[in-house]
Amino acid sequence: MSVKCGIVGLPNVGKSTIFNALSNAGAEIANYPFCTIEPNIGIAKVPDKRVDQLAEIVKPAKITHPVVQFVDIAGLVKGASSGEGLGNQFLSHIREVNAIIHVLRAFSDPDVVHSYGTVDLLRDKEIIDTELMLADLSTVEKQIIKTEKMIKAGNKETKERLLLLNEIKNMIEQSKSLRSANKNLLNLSKELFLLSVKPIIYVINVDDNFIETEDINAIKQSLKEEGAKPVILSGKIESELAEMENDEKQLFFDELGLTEPALDRLIKISYETLDLITFYTAGPKEARGWTIKRGATAKEAAGQIHSDIEKGFIKAQIIKFDDFIRYKSEQVIKEKGLINIVGKDYIMADGDMANFMFK
């Protein structure tokens, strides 16, 4: 399945630098607002050791990891919801993504102009949060007017919808997070493609000589109260790492006492935030990880490979990943009775290895 995470924030916070490091897509980086007008799209491989473990056993001709698409969206400014700085255009790009990665600038650099002159993470976070909510308020108010007209025209079934719309409007006006709303409100919010209901990940872009400052501690506390965990990284360091060979990277990690790039953590967190899991197929041609939503059925998983497999689904053979790694042979696993034959309604588990049979 196609998964998109939109990278947002004020101008000059390091979005494009982080985007380039994630995808090596070469987005233009410049020291002026709105350098990125049309969104850049890049693809990042999800770090997944299980695919590599499978490949060591089956020796396939090709190895394919799950991927996440990252969209570099131009910097938003105060007033974006009313059109400031091409805001309406940029906000429409955010509607198209599955999750938001909000980059907050914690680095000082006289050569990179800050939109508001100083580094202030709480202020910058509030500006973007407010613009997303104001854009949503405008959407909801238009829906309320439309629904009221339908009721006046005799469509009584829309009364419940009007009640829900007014509840959403009240939550936005009180600056309450829609992410904590009840199921009915959440479903309607998603139907309307509201921005402030999208899953969000905060990235704190720090100096390469990072020190915990009072400002960073304050934003971490604020995010903790929201139930959000920030990813702290240096876009500059990560972009340098992205260009290094593996041997160079390992030396760098050893020197700093790290085990992986911070961007790998960001990719994994993006995957988890969207409640995604991975199932696998493995054979002489390819070992591959496939992305599905948690709770997907075997038939739906088959559709990720090809729509014809989903349409003609008969049954699936499921092998647990740990069993395959332990016995390293499908024949041995079969002899031990560890292959599970399932129907279309089987709920896939993270790590399932699948072989689909279809008409």
Query: How far is the N terminus from the C terminus?
Result: 23 Å
Largest sheet, strands/sense/barrel: 6 strands, mixed
Count of discrete alpha- or pi-helical segments spanning 4 or more residues: 14
Helix-strand makeup class: alpha/beta
Strand order of the largest sheet: 2-4-1-5-6-7
As a percent range, the share of strand residues is 15-25%
Can you walk through the features of this model?
The chain has 359 residues and is an alpha/beta fold. 43% of the residues lie in helices and 19% in strands. Strand 6 (200-205), helix 7 (214-226) and strand 7 form a beta-alpha-beta unit. Helix 4 (121-152) packs antiparallel against helix 5 and helix 5 crosses helix 6. Mean pLDDT is 86; it is low at 32-36.
Question: TL;DR?
Answer:
With 359 residues, this protein is an alpha/beta fold. 43% of the residues lie in helices and 19% in strands.
Features:
alpha/beta, 19% strand, 359 residues, 14 helices, 12 strands, flat, three-stranded mixed sheet, six-stranded mixed sheet, single chain
SSE layout:
Elements: E1 4-8, H1 15-23, E2 40-45, H2 49-58, E3 62-64, E4 67-72, H3 87-95, E5 99-105, H4 121-152, H5 159-173, H6 183-191, E6 200-205, H7 214-226, E7 231-233, H8 235-242, H9 246-256, H10 262-273, E8 276-282, E9 286-293, H11 298-305, H12 307-311, E10 313-320, H13 321-327, H14 330-335, E11 340-342, E12 352-358
Parallel strand pairs: 1-4, 1-5, 3-9, 5-6, 6-7
Antiparallel strand pairs: 2-4, 8-9, 10-11, 10-12
Helix pairs in contact: 1-8, 4-5, 5-6
